[in-house]
Amino acid sequence: xxxxxxxxxxxxxxxxxxxxxxxxxxxxxxxxxxxxxxxxxxxxxxxxxxxxxxxxxxxxxxxxxxxxxxxxxxxxxxxxxxxxxxxxxxxxxxxxxxxxxxxxxxxxxxxxxxxxxxxxxxxxxxxxxxxxxxxxxxxxxxxxxxxxxxxxxxxxxxxxxxxxxxxxxxxxxxxxxxxxxxxxxxxxxxxxxxxxxxxxxxxxxxxxxxxxxxxxxxx
Length: 219
Ligand SMILES: [Zn+2]
Hints:
By secondary structure, the chain is an alpha+beta fold. It has helices spanning 6-9, 148-168, 171-183, 189-201, 209-216, and strands at 15-19, 25-29, 38-42, 45-48, 60-61, 66-69, 82-83, 89-94, 99-104, 113-116, 121-122, 141-142.
């Protein structure tokens, strides 16, 4: 097989669009990827993060203010990757050059579907159709009211997420979901993460077995 070229990955030369039945369109690899390799770019234009772009459901946040949003959702790019509870790639950001891309988290073979974990934290529950043996049953986290009942429901979801990702060996997914939840809190990042972790694992979260697992596992 020809030598891997990051340039070609960023021109979406190594992926194609395919049919995934009840999950709609999907993204497929045209070559093998080793862990850590760029698979394709998240193509589109940079917009202010406002939520009123017609394709805002496909927005990938570049920073606090800006997101990259596909101009044409039928075009080839990272936005075509379906969600999975056991994904083989993750969305990453190049802060300097301001673009998003998919990076292989597991070895990906030519012909295989490229999947990723949608970092959803939405009010509505979105059913997951990934079909993995260890599936959380929903995409991302369903946001709850910020009261005792809400904290209990958030805790239950995060505990279940931790169990599933433990079974899948995908610790980074839990980390990225915590970061996403923390991002919505109007305090600095460190304090925000502490609040989310306390809600999820209790005051003594640092001694919680699940939290220790999160710290022990490689990213
Ligand atoms: Zn799933």
